[in-house]
Amino acid sequence: MNRQEPGTILVAHPSPELYGSDRVLIESVAGLAARGFRVVATLPKTGPLAPILEAAGAQVDLMDVPVLRKSLLRPWAFARFVKDSAQALAQGYKLLGRHRPAAVVVNTATIPLWILTAKLRRIPVLLHVHESERNAPRVLRLALALPGTLCRKVVLNSDYSTESLTEVAPWLKGKSTVIYNGVPGPESAAAPRPALDGPVRVLFVGRLSERKGAHVALDALKLLQEQGLDIQLDLLGAVFEGYEWFEQKLREQAAALPDPSRVNFLGFDNPVWPHYAACDIAIVPSTVDEPFGNTAVEAVLAHRPVVVSRIGGLPEAVRGLDSAVLVDPDDAAALADGISSIIGNWEEFRRRSAADRQEAARRYDPQTYGSSFADQVQGIIPGSAPVPSAS
């Protein structure tokens, strides 16, 4: 197989939404399409990701497969997983027979069925790992890592993710490569306003979940309001289906604030850039390990200072970016202090954010990412020139 006739790549993904790994998939597909591959992307159902993948150059097929979750540690849930996997295996085998891809890309370690299915078809697999579950039970970490043994190549999004994976599966180190995510920014980004007149507008972008720290943001807002600061908090994101109770809990928490009117639940929205343009400070208050930090990088690309939890791969994502303030995770007082430090040195952080925006755009350029990712995929196809591992 050569560059003139590169063939088909099937990319399997577990979500039709538009959060972290979903957005990275768009850049992966764009990179493969730019290389000349025909790209088929499988999603469990239709959703906002599907038309964007099509615009990036993919054909979208719908096929649901079981996803590895912590709930599988319960015996009844694992039995259901095995049953559903057997049914999906037959469907996936037929799908691969229909498309006859030169390689399969499995985008996240949570859908190992695609790895097994491709192995049965003797199709080389690249696993793209977006997870870092150092706080999860070891049995779950092994379950996420072991399928990588069957893959020709494992691509990870940070050194932190690589360390997390190879702690439980050290034999994967030799086939692992780190490629930092490609993160597109806005076409243009308005500079932060010269003076913080009126309420200081703070923006949270991400899933409304405990691990993303929306509740910590509300606790920090309470502390700042009690200090007499006029702060507005916008929460941009939605809960997972079935976790509506958590959003209700957040709303009750907001209602108990000294000034509840300063909290806005905006739900999910795309694109996110108008919301960054309307804010002064972004926050990424994650409470558990993040493998990378797309949202933190997006804030920098949007020309906004950002307060980021010092946990997982987040510090790596903003390393050397002086407009990012690192604080202890799951600590409302630390988050409030981080926000206050930016407010108290506003002119300095305005200056830093301008320089950091240029550096982040260079470091996380989507085209550079797409080309590097396509190199790795092409390298696992028989007859293609090998691509060396890098870290």
UniProtKB/TrEMBL annotation:
Domain Glycosyl transferase family: 198-352
Gene Ontology MF: a single term: glycosyltransferase activity
Family matches, as InterPro entries: Glyco_trans_1, Glyco_trans_4-like_N
Stretches the record annotates as Disordered: 357-391
Domain Glycosyltransferase subfamily 4-like N-terminal: 20-183
Keywords: Glycosyltransferase, Transferase
PANTHER family: GLYCOSYLTRANSFERASE, SPORE COAT PROTEIN SA
Protein name in the entry: Glycosyl transferase family 1
Organism: Glutamicibacter soli
